[in-house]
Amino acid sequence: MRGAESARGERMAATGDRVERSAIEKPTATGDLVVGIATLAIVGLSAAIVFPLGIFVPTRVAWTANSPGFFPHLLLLAAGVLGLLLLVQSLRARNLEAPSPRAPLRIWTRAGVTAAIIAAYIASIMIVGLLVASILALAVALYHFGERRPFLLTSTAVAVPLLLWMFFVHVANVPMPRPLLAHWLAAIG
Description:
Blueprint: H1 2-15, H2 29-54, H3 70-94, H4 105-128, H5 130-144, H6 150-171, H7 180-188
Helix pairs in contact: 2-3, 4-5, 5-6
């Protein structure tokens, strides 16, 4: 992939064509500021509300690596640090750059479609199960973000969730809830 991009860049440089990054690739200090603040808000809400209510941690393993809350808290800490870095970086860059024009409608449309994919994924997990929902959501997301090669799209959308599911179910012995569709089919048949 990298070789094809560099060859294309060399051809464009040889012909004198100007390569310009699309508007979606251009970072803006304002956009980064909003994402940094949103990330810190989500981390704060998760630490204050979601994790205490959703993760039961026995007192005997509360501060060990065996704790059920260890990995989620580690991820939350990493997200908080990255959000803080993004916030600081955007505040510093905001003073250096000229005000940028508003983002085009297509960027907001892409963000909206991405949010809809995520919402549909979350809603479908309990109905069709984690594995099927993950395969479908990953396939739609890959297509949405520009992947058009059928073999790569299909193999990635199936292999990644399947391998992760197999690891969690068979190696880590994490029980997966039975989807509602399985209950409905059992009731019918």
